[in-house]
Automatic annotation (TrEMBL), chain A:
Residues 2-237 form the ABC transporter domain. Pfam families: ABC_tran. It is an enzyme of class 7 (translocase). It comes from Planobispora siamensis. PANTHER family: OSMOPROTECTANT IMPORT ATP-BINDING PROTEIN OSMV (PTHR43117:SF4). Keywords: ATP-binding, Nucleotide-binding, Transport. This is ABC-type quaternary amine transporter. Its EC number is 7.6.2.9.
Automatic annotation (TrEMBL), chain B:
It comes from the Bacteria. Signal peptide: none annotated. It comes from Planobispora siamensis. Keywords: Membrane, Transmembrane, Transmembrane helix, Transport. The chain crosses the membrane at residues 27-51, 63-83, 89-110, 155-174, 186-210. This is ABC transmembrane type-1 domain-containing protein. It holds the Pfam family BPD_transp_1. GO terms for cellular component: plasma membrane.
Amino acid sequence: MITFDGVTKRYPDGTVAVDDLSLEVPTGEITVFVGPSGCGKTTSLRMINRMIDPSGGRILLDGVDVTTIDPPTLRRGIGYVIQQAGLFPHRKIVDNVATVPYLLGWDKKKARARAMELLERVGLDLRLAERYPFQLSGGQQQRVGVARALAADPPVLLMDEPFSAVDPIVRASLQEELLRLQAELNKTIVFVTHDIDEAIKLGDRVAVLRVGGRLAQLADPATLLAEPADDFVREFLGRDRGIRRLSFVPGDGLRLRGDLTVPVSAEVSSVRGTAEAWLVVVGDDGGPLGWIAPKDLPDSGTLAEVPAAPYGTFVRGRDSLRSALDAALLSPSGNAVAVDGSGRVVGVATREALDEALARVADGARG
Amino acid sequence: MGEEPLVRWDWIGRNWPEIQELLADHIIMALVPVVAGLLLALPLGLAGARWRWLYQPTVGTMNVIYSLPSLAVFIVLIPITGLATRATIIVPLTFYAMAVLIPAVVDGLTSVPEHVRQSAVAMGFTPLRRLLRVELPIAVPVVLAGLRVATVSSISLVSVGALVGRGGLGYLFIDGWQRQFPTPIVVGVVLTAILAAVADLLLVVAQRWLTPWSTARSRVREAA
Ligand SMILES: Nc1ncnc2c1ncn2[C@@H]1O[C@H](COP(=O)(O)OP(=O)(O)O)[C@@H](O)[C@H]1O
Ligand SMILES: [Mg+2]
């Protein structure tokens, strides 16, 4: 756990970059510091590994004041990733990754073996190991930066806008990768960004900072979206806050109907009489094939010969209410098909069910 | 001298041992200043990169020295280092080399991107180790570019020393001019040019070998 205890940073020119910051970064979680440019994010981050020392207050790492630890020793136990990756241009990728193990005095073979393991872990082709940084794309360099930060298996990882300089598609995949790694590694991560969407996507907890280095709000993403502390946070969160909030409402609460499914092998005649406007056709493997409207069916044959309308699915127990709503909007029936982890249909969330769930969310927002 | 051929090969054959001696003397007087200049420029360049206020005065002084005519400096030094001694040539040429190399070292060190320096700090390099393992290696291409300039100009400047009695291959120019006899002059010019070309080539090879990672050829050219 990292504890900021009344931390203030005043630069020699009088700029107050961080003002009386108190918060806790829980072990094994991603805490995101987010805020506009110049609000003191980088300064706060760098006080953790003593690249900057606070002018007031204390920062504790598992209860120990970091200013009592010799900086190089402290830093070798804290991974650090920055925007331009900061790779050493004169060292091969594998040696870049092995930097901290070398500093810790590991023998070369062991350090390199560890580096290779990490390159693999962050999803890089091992043939890149013998290249130099300039021969890699920005996204690849950033992955190397992450691998390098993890090389000596530090419990704490500091990341300063690590994905800001890459294009949106690469950024999204790097974010996914980080979440996947974190699920395996459970590091204590402090992640700095100016991008609120990134903060909401990655953070277990999000600290919103305002210019002048004051904490505006510290909350988990769902709470942040539902209950911004003040106008500054509300404005910073931006548009579509209500819709985005649905990402954090589990789809589990949706009432499902089991009577709206029909096997593909069924005879047309057996379904034509139903009163329902739409039924979902289920394949032999249990997966959905599409929607049919019983009143438009031909006179004879099986459902296999009937063209089905497009559909959307959400995974019950995993996907959010937002995904369910999205699935409903993808089909002419306006209903969402619920599937299990292996893609088998478990029921249908109708418009009425979605409406009830949305009403519950809206109710929650009231108080 | 109308009938005189430009090069008399028999003269070269007869004087070959002496030419070799002059060549060796030339190489020593040209390269000792470059090596000494580099050794002195490293600490001064480091200081200039660290304490920026030192940089302008140092470079200013060096530029003034660089602008002094070499012959005048040689003559001024004669009472101290002696007539026709190597030292009379080597000492000023060392300063000329420093005038090129100090800015090269400073530029090399400032060519280290800030994010690279910061990430070295963040990973727990001590300042000395950071200098030796990160900053100096990254400065190498720019320093080598300066070294090429310093080496070639040092090789050409040695000849001026012939006017004060010690100029390596430059002696051949004086000799040929005084006797209205072109062969030594041609030999001197050709050998000086070959020497400069070989030295430069060796440095280019060294650069390729030392810095296979360098994409900064354009930056190197700029610094040169
Ligand atoms: N070394 C410094 N000296 C003076 N002011 C600084 C220094 N570093 C940062 N600042 C100022 O402190 C404030 C916070 O900077 P920073 O922590 O870099 O913000 P952020 O990372 O959120 O953009 C800014 O106003 C910035 O100009
Ligand atoms: Mg910043």
